């Protein structure tokens, strides 16, 4: 029961309004907030401020106070008394208010209160669905309160806590842990929260490996050396190496102070079974950059203290030296530190300025204080396992992890020189003698590969058309069908592309399958498909898309999004009892009959494959000839 009751506890707002006027005024105003918000709050309307003892029980709650009234200045000292957590909506200074002692007494009876001082007379603060501090940018105007802020007070609800986490995407709002907090969290996770060290280490190591893979592709940064220390940070390194091996890297490990516990011996056995070389300190060259592209620093994490003892002192020096040499090299190897750059003070960072300068830091669980001093280009967060109770207890602001990813970038991505962006493709052989004689069959083969590779919308293609003015235009459309005669897509017959096609039936299609390093160009002439075929396509679409197609007079100007919504709603109602929504006349399919195909596949050193198919008449029969074009 206790837990359930906690879960549904609502954040309590104590609503005050000026001196001896009534909280009733706020009660009347509060209906301006959406019902869905008001229902989630426990609103208490307090009338007589001189009788704070008459307040309802406030114990154990985080309280938000709203003070209102144009003449009131007392919100200001409430806010100050409440400290940094307060949220301000503009106020005049005022120390002389005779109600001050009552106000402060009231504050003391609240737990960790946030004061919202809204000085706009008989109005109620506006709600905003963002994390901006309410009202600061609009002093004196109508005040706004950020909804996420309110949600953060819906304490003990796991859903709300998750939402708060997700709303904290700005890098400045990320929390940093002290060394003690990091150790405490570790204990809580592995104590009351039921995690095992093996589990956390597996997730941490996987996060490190995925962070590395996001930035440093195995095609360019293949040889990895992980230097692992005696504790859990070293264990994270061992796990990361296993994943990196499976991701296509060639990893090596230097693990000079092995721990005899089964967890660690097991990790070493796993690496041996993958034939990952385990190097001694003596095996390492003096200049690590000769043999390795990535150096994973997994020597020490948040339990490090003092000065590094041998052999780690020398190993750290090797990494420092590497960084110094990198400054003068054209292609350099990179250093990735796990959780803490080894040798740095966990809270102060690289105090003497002579330590490791990693290119990438993967903070685990939450960044430690020293991470504020990290100045490399890639800061990632990993360890997607933090439960809401930890988020709440330590008031953590962590960015949301995208999709199913195990890591998330913190802070700004590095400035990128677009001209330097290039991929060194590695693809299978693509030879004339291996390809299908008919390009449609070859297309089908590559399309199936794209589907099997799980690529998003493999049927997305760029359609380029040119009207009689000679100006080309391109857009992405979805391939709806393919047969021996060509490629079909559907659209509005009054759209811009339709006009261009009516003037000039010549068009080109481009499929690009990133991940497979492949693209296919298809060129030819376009015709409308039969009405029957268009009908079939139309009714194969989801109902919403059918209605959408009816209301969209494609490529014409719309006064605003609301117009589309309104029309959509009207049509939804109109067709609510109708089984088959009639296809509008202006909607239908086109088919491109190809007269040229080019299959392109990226290869190393820009020696890409380009096989072109064009039709030829041989003895009255149409055959496709295949030629290889220079990349
Ligand atoms: N939530 C968490 O708390 C998690 C922690 N993990 C990892 O665990 C790390 C912390 O692990 P540990 O507490 O085992 O500690 P560390 O891995 O930071 O290091 C402890 C080891 O280093 C030695 N050591 C400390 N100072 C030294 C010095 N000056 N010279 C030489 N040796 C020194 C200690 O004797 C001990 O053997 C984190 O940084 C992180 O990488 C992850 O595995 C998973 C999640
Ligand atoms: K480290």
Q: Would you write up a description of this structure?
A:
There is one protein chain. With 631 residues, the chain is an alpha/beta fold. The chain has three domains: 12-115, no CATH class; 179-419, Rossmann fold; 439-628, Electron Transport, Fmn-binding Protein, Chain A (Pnp Oxidase, Chain A, Roll). The strands form four sheets. Strands 16, 17, 18, 19, 20, 21, 22, 23 and 24 form a nine-stranded antiparallel β-sheet that branches. An eight-stranded mixed β-sheet has the order 10-9-8-11-12-13-14-15, with helices on both faces. Strand 11 (294-298), helix 12 and strand 12 form a beta-alpha-beta unit. Helix 4 (75-82) packs parallel to helix 5 and helix 9 (197-215) crosses helix 10 (232-246). The termini are far apart. Mean pLDDT is 82; it is low at 1-7, 52-62, 68-74, 80-95 and 129-172. Residues 233, 297-301, 337-340, 342 line the site of potassium ion (K).
SS class: alpha/beta
Bound molecules: ligand NAX, potassium ion
Give me the CATH superfamily of the largest domain. YjeF N-terminal domain
Sketch the major β-sheet: 9 strands, antiparallel
The CATH topology annotation of the largest domain reads as Rossmann fold
- The number of helices is 18
Radius of gyration: 32 Å
Q: How many domains?
A: 3
Would you report the number of β strands?
A: 24
CATH class (first level) name of the largest domain: Alpha Beta
- Secondary-structure arrangement, i.e. CATH architecture of the largest domain: 3-Layer(aba) Sandwich
Distance between the termini: 70 Å
Average pLDDT rating:
82
Q: How helical, in percent, are the residues?
A: 25-40%
Ranges where pLDDT stays below 50 over 5 or more residues in a row are 1-7, 52-62, 68-74, 80-95, 129-172
Shape: flat
- How much of the residues is beta strand, in percent? 15-25%
GO biological process, one term: pyridoxine biosynthetic process
Subunit structure: Homodimer.
Enzyme class: isomerase
Keywords: Flavoprotein, FMN, Isomerase, Metal-binding, NAD, Nucleotide-binding, Oxidoreductase, Potassium, Pyridoxine biosynthesis
């Amino acid at each position: 029961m206790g837990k359930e009751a906690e879960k549904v506890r609502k954040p309590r707002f104590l609503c005050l309004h000026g001196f001896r006027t009534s909280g009733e005024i706020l009660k009347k105003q509060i209906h301006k907030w959406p019902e869905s918000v008001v229902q989630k709050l426990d609103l208490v309307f307090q009338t007589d401020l001189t009788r704070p003892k008459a307040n309802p029980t406030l114990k154990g709650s985080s309280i938000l106070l709203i003070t209102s009234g144009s003449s009131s200045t007392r919100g200001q000292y409430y806010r100050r008394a409440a400290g940094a957590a307060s949220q301000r909506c503009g106020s005049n200074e005022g120390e002389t208010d005779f109600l001050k002692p009552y106000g402060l007494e009231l504050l003391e009876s609240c737990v960790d209160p946030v004061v919202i001082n809204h000085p706009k007379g008989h109005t109620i603060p506006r709600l905003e669905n963002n994390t901006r501090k309410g009202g600061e940018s609009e002093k004196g105007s109508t005040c706004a309160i950020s909804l996420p802020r309110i949600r953060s007070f819906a304490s003990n609800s796991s859903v709300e806590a998750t939402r708060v986490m997700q709303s904290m995407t700005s890098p400045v709002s990320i929390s940093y842990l002290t060394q003690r907090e990091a150790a405490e969290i570790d204990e809580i996770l592995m104590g009351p929260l039921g995690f095992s060290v093996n589990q956390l280490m597996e997730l941490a190591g996987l996060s490190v490996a995925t962070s590395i893979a996001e930035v440093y592709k195995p095609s360019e940064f293949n040889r990895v050396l992980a230097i692992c220390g005696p504790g859990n940070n070293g264990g994270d390194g061992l796990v990361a190496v296993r994943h990196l091996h499976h991701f296509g890297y060639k990893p090596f490990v230097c693990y000079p102070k092995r721990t005899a516990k089964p967890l660690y011996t097991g990790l070493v056995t796993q690496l041996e079974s993958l034939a990952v070389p385990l190097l001694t300190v003596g095996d390492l060259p003096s200049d690590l950059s000769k043999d390795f592209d990535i150096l994973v620093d997994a020597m020490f994490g948040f339990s490090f203290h003092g000065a590094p003892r041998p052999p780690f002192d020398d190993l750290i020096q090797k990494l420092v030296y590497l960084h110094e040499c990198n400054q003068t090299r054209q292609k350099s190897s990179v250093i990735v530190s796990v959780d803490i750059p080894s040798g740095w003070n966990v809270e102060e960072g690289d105090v003497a300025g002579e330590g490791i300068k990693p290119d990438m830091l993967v903070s685990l669980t939450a960044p430690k204080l020293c991470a504020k001093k990290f100045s490399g280009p890639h800061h990632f967060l990993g360890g997607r396992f933090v439960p809401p109770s930890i988020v709440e207890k330590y008031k953590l602001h962590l960015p949301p992890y995208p999709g199913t990813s195990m890591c998330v970038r913190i802070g700004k991505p590095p400035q990128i020189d677009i001209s330097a962006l290039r991929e060194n493709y590695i693809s299978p052989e693509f030879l004339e003698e291996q390809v299908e004689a008919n390009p449609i069959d070859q297309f089908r083969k590559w399309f199936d590969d794209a589907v099997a590779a799980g690529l998003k919308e493999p049927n997305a293609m760029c359609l380029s058309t040119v009207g009689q003015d000679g100006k080309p235009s391109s857009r992405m459309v979805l391939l709806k069908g393919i047969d021996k005669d060509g490629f079909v897509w559907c659209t509005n017959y009054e759209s811009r592309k339709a006009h261009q096609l009516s003037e000039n039936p010549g068009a080109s299609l481009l499929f690009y399958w990133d991940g497979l390093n492949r693209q296919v160009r298809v060129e030819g002439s376009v015709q409308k498909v039969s009405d029957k075929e268009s009908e079939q396509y139309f009714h194969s679409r989801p109902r919403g898309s059918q209605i959408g197609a009816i209301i969209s007079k494609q490529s014409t100007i719309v006064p605003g999004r609301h117009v589309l919504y309104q029309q959509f709603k009207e049509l939804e109602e109109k067709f609510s009892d109708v089984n088959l929504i009639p296809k509008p006349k202006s909607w239908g399919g086109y088919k491109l009959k190809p007269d040229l195909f080019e299959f392109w596949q990226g290869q190393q050193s820009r020696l890409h494959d380009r096989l072109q198919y064009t039709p030829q008449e041989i003895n009255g029969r149409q055959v496709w000839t295949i030629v290889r074009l220079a990349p």
